Amino acid sequence: MGKGLTSAIAANRFGLGARPGELAAIGGSGPDWLRSQLDGPAPEIACDGLQSSASILAQIYDLRRAIRAARASGVAAGHEAGNGEASSAAAIGAFKKLPQLIKPLYVAEAGARFREAVATARPFVERLTHFWANHFAVSADKSVLPALAGSYEREAIRPYVLGNFGDMLLATERHPAMLLYLDNQMSMGPNSRAAGNIARRDPDRKTGINENLARETMELHTVGVDGGYTQADVTVFSQVLTGWSIAGPDGWRGGAQPGTFLFRAAMHEPGPKVVLGKRYPDTGYDQGVAVLRDLASRPATARFIATKLVRHFIADDPPAPAVERVAAAFSERGGDLTTVYRALIDSPEAWEQPTAKYKTPSDFIVSSFRGLQLPVSANKTPVGLLQLLGQRIWAPGSPAGWPDRSADWDGASALLQRIQWADAVGQRVGPGRNAMELAPQMLGGVLTAGTREAIAHAESAAQAIVLLLAAPEFMRR
Amino acid sequence: MKRREFLTTGALAAGGALLSSRVTFAGTASGKKPRLVFIILRGALDGLAAVPACGDPGYAQLRGDLAIGRPGTDGGALALDGTFGLHPSLAFMRQSYAARELIVFHAVASPYRDRSHFDGQNVLETGYPQPHAVQTGWLNRALAVIPAARATERERGISIAPTAPLVMRGPAAVTSWSPSHLAPLDDDTLQRISDLYSHDAALGQKLAEALAAEAIAAENTADADERPLLAKRGKPGAQYAEVVKAAARFLRQEDGPLVAVFDTMGWDTHFNEGGAKGQLAARLATLDAALGGLRAGLGPVWSSTAVFLATEFGRTVAENGTRGTDHGTATAAYLLGGAVKGGRVVADWPGLTPRGLYQDRDLKPTLDLRAVMKGLLAEQLGVPRRALESSVFPDSGQARTLRGLLRG
Fold it and tell me: Model pTM?
């Protein structure tokens, strides 16, 4: 393999697309450049104006309280005036404030994430961040999740990307965004104290467990669907996770701040539990932590994570030797992620096929912005653009996250829309860009003679840009 | 519980034997080409909410607060027969039932018996008994074997989506279309990109398909008759209005596709599912409005159309701890359209008694979804029996093809 090829693979498949000068900086050794990005703590995102999940949830609580108050006073006033309809106007007015709170938070977070992706000098780490956020997906299309998806990524994913898998697992499963997304915050053990109290006070009220978080934690986050668990394991694990909840507006006697994780012991199903054949004594919150730690270190988890990483970074159909190697690295060092990434980089399979992966819409857009140095303005974020091309940021629509095979993205209509967007970009910035100079900077050793020729013969600078972005070697990574 | 409609496998064996000799082709009598629309309901739609078994005494008992009331009560079900009703949000579907254009299949399930959405959808789309067996879909493989005289390449199938869902991927050339809010390209640039793709067969073919679909879409945007029929922004159905409009536009064409597919999502009601009103009720109203919009948009083509709706599995019979339901097994599926011999509920009802449940929690499956799919493909698209049993639905011998689903 020529040195130019490893640079192009490193920048485009492992990174987020080469920026001008990046391939030269890599200097012919893609693997070394990738390894060097793993040193030091994972970068934080510039935090201007971004808020913590707890602060966001506290505002949502306040708003909900205002809505309830408006509704209550509206009903009272309407009762007095004999006019229920007019009186609910106040409540409706208050209700509309919720989207007014949520949307700007989403736009600010998505914009910050996009700017980081376009500007970062450690694009491998940023791609890994996107990978893990998608692995532990909370979809920004449910309830208040659009407001929390960004802070979730900053709080539960980024700090752990160069750390340990088990730590990231724990951070995600107990994050309020995940608890809300997978409906665990109200899940209550049938034999818990809280359930007993409710049954005495209000025998008609239903309480019980919700198995969503337990199931998806096993199926999607750790051992995978073939990881050897049964429905009974899901049921018992969901009992283990009862009580994993979120502090409400008044916080908690024990000191939990509103909007942060809270273990509600009264809701926890008491007793020892057996999950995947192992008995866990009743240690309250720690029982759940112990199950998660064990799930993180199971061989099935190593294999499942390795398969997903190899699919993402090497090929749609993961080559078995690479999966073996990465899974072994995962297990040998207890889920230490930089060891895992090094095994990935050391896999010869990663360097054999230069453009093995079809870009997702996000990859396509981000790499275009990086390659052409397109400006990302502070107020006009690319949120709409990603939605237009079919991949709204943090909104895969399911806890499985976005799919990761060519066939999931390479539709006819999707292709035409990419080209149409490329055309719009060409018309906007073409006159200021020289595609002949940019093409080798963006594509390096994978640039084909056919593409170079097509660009050279373009009838305008704008058209040359369209041809560069539409080129087969730029559609893939 | 008495057995209602009796499509037991035994009774079907006789009908199945007739199949090999002669294949009827719906719509041919009237000279119209058949149309098949498959709407995937992703997320496991609660069949006991959409099609409540109000007449089963176990229904109200086991469902508790989520139970839909009996027909005639406030917020009660829309009556179908003595046992079943439709959710009160499904007014258009009830109307279709009355017009004998809707069959509801109940206690139906794919061969998949675990409770993962993603594996369940994989089985629903591949048509194989095991998840992740192949990367092609049953509809595409069916299109690949229908006699060439019946459909040219262009006529076969379309996904109303940027990229085809798995059920439409495979050997048959199909296309996809989704509304673009971007300006079209000029011909010269397009030609140059096509030339650039001449050495890349995959991209070249995709681009050609996209341009062909775009041409059909562009030809027919000016149709006046579709405008008043579709939901306005913010009204139920608006979410799918553009998709439905597009599907109808393609299917209405004389040389349009035989098959159109699109997705709906949001059926995974673990939390605050609601009953006659609430979250699921609103989504069902949206779906119902979309179906009404599709009928309106198809105009005369509706009479030769069959719309099939299916989800990956059902939900628990009982309410969970958070006023919702968790992943279950059997559910309902739906076949409606002018081509459908409707006005019936097809169910070998297992009964909602604690002993009758699957694994003590779910509606027990008594009908294999593939039996419906095979009947639909045989009658609506003329897919030969041999292909149904081999390339389209391998290892589906136990799911005897249901006959008589269409007017024929």
Answer: 0.85
